[in-house]
Fold each of these.
Amino acid sequence: MNFDRKKQIRFKNDDDIRLLREVVARNPIKNKNKWTEVAAVLSTPMFVLDARRVRERTNLLIEQHKRENRENLKKSGVDEDVTERTTLLDEIMELKEEEEREKKEEKEKKEKSENLGKEIRKRALECLTPKKDDESDIPKRRYSQTYLVDYLKEKSEMEIATKRTELELRKEELRLQKAQFDLDREERLQRMEVEKQEKIAFMDLLKKLTNNK
């Protein structure tokens, strides 16, 4: 019987190192779409990967890293990769912790905003609810109105600060992306130049050999 199954992928140590390098460089922890890029970079005709596979492999390596210590890694017999592997995993764990911390802060900020909204709606309702018009009720209404103004001012300032922070983060992200693009472009140009020089040298050598015959 024939079953339509995906070919099983077996990661070797070198494959893991390349995977971890790409995860650190592209940070798919923050941007989930980057997993697809990581898979595309590492894939070959005989080693086809997708976003799910590289993500699951990375998570597995992280869990192993949490359980194992450096001494156990050294006993694996691949001393030359131990330091880089451990360093890369440490960096990825820091990226995960940073992302979790940002999500927690964003959640707390959202909850604070929602609670303030509930409180101000409650105060506004108390302020607008018709009551007996006596002198004792005037300070309470004034307090509610002042609270409403202060809240709206605080909310506006918070939104402006948040947008400013997001804009700065976006600018920094674009700057880093451009720097990476320029670096990749420079490496490609250098590689092309080396290949060109090698080709010229080979043609000169071939020409000399032909003339000597």
Amino acid sequence: MTDQTISNAVAVRENGPGALIQQYKADLAQVMPSHVKPDTFVRLAVGVLRRDKNLALAASNNPVALMGALMDAAQLGLTPGTEQFYLVPRKSRGRLEIQGIRGYQGEIELIYRAGAVSSVIVEVVRQADVFRYSPGRDERPHHDIDWDASDRGPLRLVYAYAVMKDGATSKVVVLNRAQVEAAKALSQGSDSPYSPWQKHEEAMWMKTAAHRLTKWVPTSAEYMREQLRAHAEVAAEQRPAQAVHSGPDRLDDEDGPIVAEFVDDEAEGGVRA
């Protein structure tokens, strides 16, 4: 390797996607929840690109898509490049670019972060499993697994529910293969070999059920909006009332007449306005 080759490699590294992420660290930090450390977030994001040459290429092809995905992850407070928030390359107009996809662990994290639930259960049901759930009769699903089985068979169902802080059970979400496949069909790039639908099928079944569950339990996004609304209302109540002028200002001569008052006019023996 020549000195010129090394210099070129260093220049690419210093001006590549990793440098771009570092450059926009302050912007990412502005939208992050308080529990997320910007330095850690940026370090993990840069590390993901360095470990995956396809991701690095996709990031270089379209830096705007890269930063858009990272901004989404930052706003949600999820870790990029993990099962909380996937970073995947996908083809767009003949070249790779980065797509951000919320994972099942991310969906569950957002539910927990709202503080309304004590536990979240998301499980897949395979062909050899025993599963029973009757809405209105059963509070929670009954799921038996033969852990000694060498092969539980293909995926058949997926379910999700939460146990609230008061012990109550949320709505139970149960999806069959057809429903999951319908959700997959609506997912952009799901047929790509890089998609988590192809590489992590079971996790994406669980993500689909967990995402449906967020319609029935609070998520951190809802919680944060409610907190902001409450803070705004308190601030409005505490704001001092502005002084209201009921009439024109006085003249410089405080002993003189005030405009629109009646004063005696001794010379004419009458009044004037």
